[in-house]
Structures are given as C-alpha cells and as structure tokens.
Write a structure and sequence with these properties.
This protein has about 180 residues and is mainly alpha-helical. The chain is built from 7 helices and 2 strands; from the N terminus they run αααββαααα. Strand 1 and strand 2 form a beta hairpin.
C-alpha cells in the first residue's frame, strides 16, 4: 500500500509503465550490488536489437564494448530478458543454426520511440562512465584475476602458505587501489 498525501493521491511517483514498468534511473540507479537496473538493461537491449538483429551472445559483447569491458551481463540475465521481450511482442526470434536471432517488431519500435529520451539518457550515462575510464578495460583483468584465483584454489595447487601469500597479495592490491 502506498502512502497518500492530503488530497488522497499517492506520494510515490508513478511512471508511464510499458510492458515492464519503469526503471530506477538508468544503469546505476538500482539498489544492491547489481550494475544495471533491469528496466534500463531491457531498454538498452531493445535499442541494440533495433540497430540490427542480434544473437544473445552478440548483445552481451555489445554491452561489454559499451562499458569498455568493465561490465558484461551474464547469459542468465540476457536470455530470460530476451524471452520476456519476445513474450511482450517487442522482438521476434528465428532459428539461426543452433542460435536464435532476435529482431525488433513494430510494437518494439513504437515502444522504443516512446522511450527514446530515456534511452538517450541511459546511453549518455554509459558513455560518461566509459569515457572516464579512458578506454582502459579493467573488466578483463578482473575476470582473469578471479579465474586465476578460483582455478588455483580448485586445483589443489595451493597449500596453506601459498593461500596466505595470495591473500596478502590481494589485500595489498586492494589497499593500493583504494589509495589511487
């Protein structure tokens, strides 16, 4: 139940909705650890599909490129979203070998036209963040570091001494980054 002001109207801002409701301020407006608010991500994905028909993997790579490698959505975020976009008749898909190729529908184009200002604002936020990084893609290094640590731990190559040394290296790197 939403709070009401003196004239009985809701004090909470209501968006115009659309098939998925409104998002909370672009790729950085959500709560919690998520990089991308799901409503903003859906709009950006729809915009990418409007540029040209795409496979899910192509969408992931296009988003990664927009963020200079600092953000890459998981397949678990993209593929269910594509299914929701298709169920809302905003995109259609067709078999393309063992993949699905997604194209925007007329209804999707209309929704995108109605949301053009919002999409432009979100893309401007993305470009601003990517521009601040100066073309340096640290996301790849972060993923490589994570993969290295996990693979070494799983392989059993590290004993207690090596594990403690790795922990100290990571702590030192974190402190160095905090001091930048």
């Amino acid at each position: 139940m939403s709070a009401r002001n003196d004239d009985g109207h809701s004090r909470h801002r209501r968006g115009r909705g659309g098939p998925f409701g409104r998002h909370r301020g672009g790729p950085f407006g959500g709560r919690g650890p998520r990089m991308f608010d799901s409503g903003a991500l859906r709009l950006v994905v729809l915009g990418l599909i409007a540029e040209e028909p795409r496979h899910g993997y192509d969408i992931i790579k296009a988003l990664e490129a927009k963020f200079q490698g600092a953000y890459s959505p998981s397949p678990g975020a993209i593929y269910p979203m594509l299914q929701m976009l298709e169920e809302a008749d905003l995109v259609v898909s067709e078999a393309d070998g063992n993949k699905r190729l997604f194209s925007i529908t007329d209804q999707g184009k209309t929704y995108l036209e109605e949301s053009a200002a919002e999409l432009e604002r979100i893309n401007a936020q993305i470009q601003h963040v990517a521009g601040r990084m100066g073309g340096v893609a640290i996301g790849d290094e972060l993923r490589s570091l994570r993969w290295t640590v996990h693979s070494r731990m799983r392989s059993g190559e590290w004993n207690a001494d090596k594990t403690e040394k790795a922990r100290e290296i990571l702590k030192s790197a974190r402190r160095d980054l905090e001091d930048l």
